[in-house]
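name: query_chain
kind: protein
chains: 1
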Amino acid sequence: MVDILDNPILCKKCKKEMQKVNISKNGFILRAVVCPKCSSKVLHPVDEQEYNRFINLKNREFRVKMRLVGNSYAVSIPREIVNFMQEQEKMVNDMVKLCFEEAGRVSLCFNEILENGK
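structure:
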């Protein structure tokens, strides 16, 4: 299958051929084309759709229960988030980084490589 950005794309304003670039936004790398003359940008439609899906999930608040399991507590992660991360099978039994950031705030990091077995 051919990618849309593999073809020459002309700028709508100045009719110059646009150049491929990668744009970083909130940890996402978005493929795009930029006009060298007027700096007009066009994002790859698939990347833009995935980014918008991420923003919708990010802005949504989930209410989950904290349960006592043995001597620890467990919190379930909504399936929508796990599906978005596209690592369902890989995440099961994987180690994640848990940080107590401040009073009332805990964070989980799934994509960081844990150093020294920590």
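note: Helices lie at 45-58, 79-85, 88-91.
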